[in-house]
Each structure stands twice: as C-alpha cells, then as structure tokens.
Fold this sequence. Notes:
Layout: H1 2-21, E1 32-42, E2 45-53, H2 54-60, H3 72-81, H4 83-91, E3 94-98, E4 101-102, E5 105-115, E6 118-128, E7 136-141, E8 153-162, E9 165-171, E10 177-181, E11 193-195, E12 198-200, H5 202-218, H6 220-232, H7 236-258, H8 266-286, H9 293-309, H10 320-351, H11 357-380
Parallel strand pairs: 1-8
Antiparallel strand pairs: 1-2, 2-6, 3-4, 3-7, 5-6, 7-10, 8-9, 11-12
Helix pairs in contact: 1-11, 5-10, 6-8, 6-10, 6-11, 7-9, 7-10, 8-9, 8-11
Amino acid sequence: MISALRVALGGMVLAGILVSLTAPMASAHVPTTDGTATIRQEGPLVRNTLELDYDTLTKAAGLGALPRDTKDAEHEVFLQTHRAQLLAYLADRLTVALDGASCPAGLDDTGITKRRQFLYARLLLIHRCPGSGTGEFTVRYGVFSETEATGAEHTNMVDYELGGSGGSDVFDAGHRELRVGRSGAVDAGRGASHSDGLDVSWSSVGRFVSMGIEHILLGIDHVLFLVLLLLGAQGWRSVVRLATSFTVAHSVTLALAVLGWVDVPAKIVEPLIALSIVYVAVENLTRGESRHRVLVVFGFGLLHGLGFAGALSFTDDFGGRLLLSLLSFNLGIELGQLAIVLVAFPLLLLARRYSWSTLAHAAAAAIVGVIGLVWFVERLLPAGGAA
C-alpha cells in the first residue's frame, strides 16, 4: 500500500513538472482576446457599440495586418475604408431578432480605442427592428468563433438594456445567445429576478463565476505561485494566513483595475508576476517560510490581482450590474484557489512523512523558479497581442 502510494505521488509530481515545462513559456495563459458590447434599445432601433481586438478583427475579416509601427490615425482610416468588409463579417456573426424577425444591421461608425496599452477597434452597429420595438429580443454572437482559427479563445462582456430589462452577461465559446424582453432576461430559457432595479440573471452570474475559476486554474503562473506558497507553508494555520493575505490583496487591485481607477500596462504586470514566482522559489530554497512572508504575499497578491483584471473588460460605470459581475468573477477565483489548496496541500503533508520529501521539495522549487525566470525574461521581450 505504501509502495503504491509512493509511486502515485511520484507520478503526480512528475506529471506536474512535465505540464509546467511544456506550457506556453511566455504567457503562461490560454491565449485569449476580450471585447465589450454596449447594447441599447431606442424604440425599434438597437445600438450595439463593440470594442474588439484590432489585429484579430482585421485578420478574421480578411483585411490583412498593418505594420507594427502604423500610427493611430492610419488605423482609423484603415477601418473606415473597409467598412463594407467589416459589416459583411459582423452581420453574419452578430445578429439581433425581435420576436423571431431579423433586425438588419448597418455599420454606422468606426474608430479605435486603447485599453491596457492594447489597440481595439470601436464599431457602432445599428439594428433596425420591425414594428415598435416591443417583444422578445434574441442576440446571437459568433465573432471570432473557433472555426475561424484566430489562435485565441474569445470572450465579450456585454452590457444591455433591451425590452425593458438591463443586465450584464458574457459571450464565449459555450454561450452564444441571449434572449431578453417581455418577462425580463430569459437567457436561453432561464428566467431573471428583479430587485431594486437590478436585473439578475443567475445563469450569467454563473458564467462570471466560471470565468474566474477558469482564469486561475488555466493561468499556470498563478497556480505555480500558489503551489510554491504551499510548499513553504508549515501547516494549515500558515496556509490560512497566506491565502487570506493573497485573497485580500488581489481582490483590491482586481476591483481597482476593473473600475478603471488603476491602470498598469500588462508589459509591466506580467514580468513582475513571473518575478514573484522566482522570489518565492528562492525563498523556499534558502529559508522556507519567513516572518514577513504574509506581507510579501500581500504585495505579490496586488500584482496578481492586476493580472486577473486582464480577463475583464466592462463598459458601464460603477453600479449594481458591474458590482455583481465583479463579485461573481472574484468568487470564481476564490473557488479555484480553494480547490488548488484543498487538493495540493494534503498531498504535500502526506509526502512530508517520507525521507525523500526534502529533496523533492527543493527540486520542485528549483524547477518552478527556473520556469519563472524564463517567463520573466521572455515577458520583457516585445510581443504583440493580448495578455
């Protein structure tokens, strides 16, 4: 029994090392692009203001790519001169219907904007619906779908006011349709509750929670940072202190960044996150858990919170809908973090019963430290695309 347990633990350690070594070295994240959509109804008209990653959009629409040193004014002119192609691309992938009747779209305006130092195309689609504009609206979203091989997963945060209801939602590969109107946000057959003017679609809340879970579990740098903390922790009391410090810190900067009160470029945040891994790895190798580790973790948690914020792009001002979405996303991060702790730390405690654990501890810290150092160097190099 003990021999089998050793083999199982050794296999898990080896698998973890192989996964880490074969992960995408520069980003440590699943490649993603984000976007926003602000949908507002004005009688029979539906105004849809989109912000989409500029380079991904021009590639997906078949417009080609502009040189890296292209000026902002030239980017704007490029969009304007290709409005027909952009409309042809978007009209098939972003549709609005009222009670089943199609609302034809026109591309009314184009422009550019920058968020976190990345360039986005700003597009105003106006959908003209039949009748007076009352009834159930169906919005279908298929921009940057998997079949287009854009090289990245895509999410779009949508803020809508349609059919007398308002709310926030997220379109991604698993959610392409939103139904709103008459009885409120229906969202693929599920109802919404109303309280103090805030429309709550619990399925959209669930999607923001799921996004948070995926973001931390698929963000290998965040996972390795947590594992290093667990390697150096002396017991469950220590784990609680460190996890609490990390949680409070990243929650603060996540909120500040999403609300637009703090804006630190990813080209600064991402290398520092990699450096945080290196620091904790070296600390584990030299002295283990220090007296000041809680404060150190708090400082690094502030950086990781800015990294988490890179997955969110909201369009509305501070209010109930934004707060609910932010809290839901952060809840997902905490659930993912809790899952890592509950799975990894008991295994580490079990491994510490054996004589080989000290060597394994040092080897794991050294390997992760080297990976963090490689990420740090590579993230300092110029790179295009979203983080």
